[in-house]
Amino acid sequence: MPNALQSAQYDVAIIGGGPAGCSAASWLQQLGLSVALIEREAQLCAGLQSLQFGQDWVLGSPGQNLATLGQQYARHIEGLAAVQVLLARKPSHLDWAAAEGWCMQLDDGRSLKARALLLATGLTPLRPEIFFPVSASPNPRLMDALGLTACRDQLPPARILLLGGGDNAVENALFLQARGHQVTLWSRSDWRAQQSLVERLKAQTGAITMRPRSAMPNRLSAHASGVGVQSQQFGDEQFDHVAVLLGFEAEPSAWLLAGDALQRAGVTAPSYPFRDEPRFAPLGLFVAGDASGHQHPSVQTALGDGVVAAKAVEAFLRPLTEGQPTLAMRRNNRQIIHISGLRFGANLGVLDFEREGPQPIQVDAEVNLGAQAIVSRDADIGHVLDYRRVRAIIIDECTAEHTDLLEALLGKLCTRLMKLPGVAGVRVKVTKLEIFPDCQVAISAECGQW
Ligand SMILES: Cc1cc2nc3c(=O)[nH]c(=O)nc-3n(C[C@H](O)[C@H](O)[C@H](O)COP(=O)(O)OP(=O)(O)OC[C@H]3O[C@@H](n4cnc5c(N)ncnc54)[C@H](O)[C@@H]3O)c2cc1C
Q: What average pLDDT does the chain have?
């Protein structure tokens, strides 16, 4: 355990001190590893403090209050000798080098080094630009999910519009209606909340104004006494408060720093939207909790995911201390799937004879899987991208329907292949083999990272 923070060296740096980060920190110290836990708020599990309601998932302690649980997790972690807790701090810069791992600059100018980096930075509410333009100054009458949770207990009875149809929106509609608010619930789709919430909502027909399957408003304009809402379907309306509850995305701040660090080191970086991918593990980059997108976001799953991440970090660090392949060797192990000379008939082209039936084409494709761990033993086919799937997708995409332009077909192929798990980049070339008697014509495209 280092004494001074200046250039302090740890086995693992964890960014984010919510349930996932705390759970991982606890396991990592039990595995004998030193940990720096960096949290931008002034306390650990800060997000749970505004959730003052009981939880029945805590086995043996039904009705446990989430805020109390958060305080218990924080006390536990603060009592662990091998975990250095850094509160009210966030990273301002990250560097990654194959031989050394991660070097982190904190916002107070100090720095630390760690061989592994775990992102446990949770989610952030979606704030569509159309409702929260960057130019507009914040107005407490127009809220996102966190803003509403923080103040919903204190709001005097009012006319409230909730945009959204998931768990959060429906739960808030029921909560606010029970406290005397005049609630309108507006969703672009059918209600997507869990069945029990939807049943409770339907029991409030009449008490809550419900607008399922309604196109979202075109404009929200917050002012001192309320929020103007403009939509094609309902015209101009006024509410005292509006909350935009359209879901969450991975909190981007730390992801972006890690991505920049990898990019500068010449390694395929995470792309947006951020998701955990096995290809990051050989670089010593791990994700846990809500930020990983592995599971339904909840405290219990975040705690479990923290444990899973801690074991993955340990598995990464162990070979380094046992003289196994170095980080640099692992990093260079970029893998690419090549599909060459795949020939079949496709309905393609704008010429009359091209519209009459399929013509022979050839597709050549490369699929970049980025840095991969060195695999010296046979593993389950389920752990790799099966090249049969790549071949089948190419044939399916080219034969599903008639496409006029070769360029459009390339676009469809790139889009479909880029969606496969772990794919960082795609190169495709499509050749019309018999379009002219004296030559072939081909167009190629490249997208993603190479
Ligand atoms: C309104 C609401 C109600 C909910 N109700 C329930 C419920 O009833 N039951 C339940 O089980 N779950 C509930 N949840 C979900 C639950 O809170 C989360 O699933 C859980 O907290 C996820 O834990 P986590 O550690 O992955 O992320 P978080 O708890 O979000 O923790 C992430 C931490 O990372 C920190 N952080 C982010 N970026 C940085 C950075 N760059 N530098 C430093 N620190 C950073 C944040 O400050 C935060 O403390 C609710 C969530 C919300 C928003």
A: 91
Q: What is the mean pLDDT of residues 430-450?
A: 91
CATH 2.60.15.10 is held by the domain 142-246? no
- Architecture per CATH, domain 8-124+249-328, reads as 3-Layer(bba) Sandwich (3.50)
- Residue 201 corresponds to which amino acid? L
- pLDDT value of position 267: 80
Does residue 377 carry a pLDDT above 90? Answer: no
Q: What is the mean pLDDT of residues 232-259?
A: 96
Helices 167-178, 195-202: axis angle to 10 degrees equals 40
Ligand 1 proximity of 302 Cβ (cutoff 6 Å): yes
Is the CB of residue 7 less than 8 Å from the CB of residue 109? no
Mean per-residue pLDDT for 259-272? 84
Closest residue by Cα to atom 9, ligand 1, is: 298
Give the per-residue pLDDT at 373: 59
> How far, in Å, from the CA of 54 to the mean position of ligand 1?
16
Instruction: State the Cα torsion 198-200-202-204 to the nearest 10°.
Output: -140
Please give the number of the atom of ligand 1 that sits closest to the Cα of 124: 30
C-alpha triplet 321, 327, 332: angle, nearest 5°: 155
Between strands 111-119 and 219-223, the pairing is: unpaired
**CA 17 to CA 38: how far, in whole Å?**
6
Using only C-alpha atoms, the chain has a radius of gyration, in whole angstroms, of: 26
Q: How far is the CA of 217 from the centre of ligand 1 (A)?
A: 28
- Distance separating alpha carbons of residues 410 and 387, to the nearest angstrom: 19
Q: Whose CA is nearest to atom 10 of ligand 1?
A: 298
For residue 239, the 8-state DSSP code is: E
Q: What is the DSSP letter of 216?
A: P
The pTM (predicted TM-score) of the whole model is: 0.74
Question: Which of 153, 140, 120, 144 is CA-nearest to residue 51?
Answer: 153
Query: Which among 198-202, 331-335, 416-420 has the top mean pLDDT?
Result: 198-202
- Where are the domain boundaries for CATH 3.30.1130.10 in the chain? 333-448
According to DSSP, the β-strands at 64-65 and 219-223 are unpaired
Q: How far apart are CA 304 and CA 289, in angstroms?
A: 8
